[in-house]
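Project standup — Tuesday

K.O.: blocked on the structure for the chain from last sprint. Re-posting the sequence here as requested.
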Amino acid sequence: MYRFAKSAVNISSQAARQVRHGSSAPQDFHHKYGTGVMVGGAVFCTAVWSYVLTQTGITWNLSPIGKVMPKQWREAEE
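H.V.: unblocked you, prediction finished:
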């Protein structure tokens, strides 16, 4: 138990040190690349869904109205 507590304290002190000094990544990353990453993701998502909807041949079965005909009831046997 002592080793676990000692390692937990060590990890928390390392985390506090990282928060205090900050990470090595530049702070203006989102200002420089945020819009480009967002637009790129939107274009990728749109392209993938366009391909799926038009080229894969999936039958989507949007509405069964007019496509499904009910069976006739059997007449009661006498």
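K.O.: great, moving the ticket to review. The chain is about 60% helix and 0% strand. The chain has a mean pLDDT of 76.
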